[in-house]
Specification:
alpha/beta; Metallo-beta-lactamase, Chain A; Arc Repressor Mutant, subunit A; 2 domains; seven-stranded mixed sheet
Length: 292
């Protein structure tokens, strides 16, 4: 059982000092994938970094600028190019002269949410790249899985990881092919766990404070889902459309299309590892699956 954390006190557009070096401003874009909205993080004081400025929204742009009044935004860090994370980067940079760090859109699409297909950072950030300010040191951590260009950022001074959509306290993460990859996601979970972060600050929802047990539960949930899929297939070949209503019966039906994509990611992984075989050379959403 994942020990989800869902309670968060905030007001849209109002900056909250959530730790000594971190402020958060939440955009008014709640929804089934964004939860209460996109949480934009401002790191440091005087010369600051902004992480995931969010959707292209004038009110949110104004709120970020107001939160940083009298300060200089020197860096804008993007976790990935879904439209609730990256579109405001360029307008914010135009107003402030900040440098945008991130990874370009892979242009493979996503069933969960659209990518910002023309996103290009000023700096194509590398795994392990260090970005600094007067009172903050941030290291980029490449974490493909949810998206192939997903990057987390760890703040050394607080051992705090800005986890984007890689790990969220309020929900599991959708892994949606073709850009999402379950094998890469497992590897990235291991990588994040090894960092020993004290706190995870997802872009949506409240922080995760008990990090190691939470990540372990996150992984266990994924592995349990694979066992459930294998149990479904034990009674005979099945398609994803037959299994989703059974395995995701307790999930909001609005999320079933995304759940189908996540199940596809699991089945692609199980096919690669030899546990399952597909009726098609390339396992797809309409393929018939059976145990190997």
């Amino acid at each position: 059982m994942i020990p989800f954390v869902k309670e968060m006190t905030f007001a849209y557009g109002v900056p909250d000092q959530v730790s000594p070096l971190i402020r958060r401003v939440v955009a008014n874009n709640p929804g089934p994938f964004t939860y209460l909205g996109t949480g934009t993080y401002i790191v440091g004081s005087g010369e600051v970094a902004v992480i995931d400025p969010g959707p292209d929204d004038d009110a949110h742009l104004a709120a970020i600028l107001q939160a940083c009044a009298g300060e200089t935004i020197t860096a804008i860090l993007i976790t990935h190019t879904h439209i609730d994370h990256s579109p405001l980067a360029r307008p914010l940079a135009a107003r402030t002269g900040a440098v945008i760090f991130g990874r370009a859109d892979p242009a493979t699409g996503s069933a969960e949410e659209d990518n910002e297909s023309d996103f290009r950072p000023d700096v194509e950030v590398e795994d392990g790249q260090v970005i600094t300010g007067p009172d903050w040191t941030i290291t980029a951590v490449a974490t493909p899985g949810h998206a192939s260009n997903h990057v987390c950022y760890i703040l050394a001074e607080e051992r705090a990881l800005f986890s984007g959509d890689h790990v969220m306290g309020w929900s599991t993460t959708v892994v949606s092919p073709p850009d999402g990859d379950m094998g890469a996601y497992y590897a990235s979970l291991d990588k994040v766990e090894a960092l020993g972060a004290r706190t995870l600050w997802p872009t949506h929802g409240p922080p995760v404070q008990d990090v190691q047990p939470f990540i372990a539960a996150y992984r266990a949930h994924r592995l349990a889902r694979e066992q459930q899929i294998l149990a479904q297939l034990a009674s005979g070949p099945k398609r994803i459309s037959e299994m989703v209503p059974v395995l995701y019966a307790a999930v909001d039906s609005r999320l079933h299309p995304a759940a189908s994509r996540s199940m596809l990611a699991h089945l692609q992984h199980l096919t690669r590892t030899g546990a399952v075989e597909s009726s098609d050379d390339e396992p797809g959403p309409l393929s018939l699956y059976r145990l190997e």
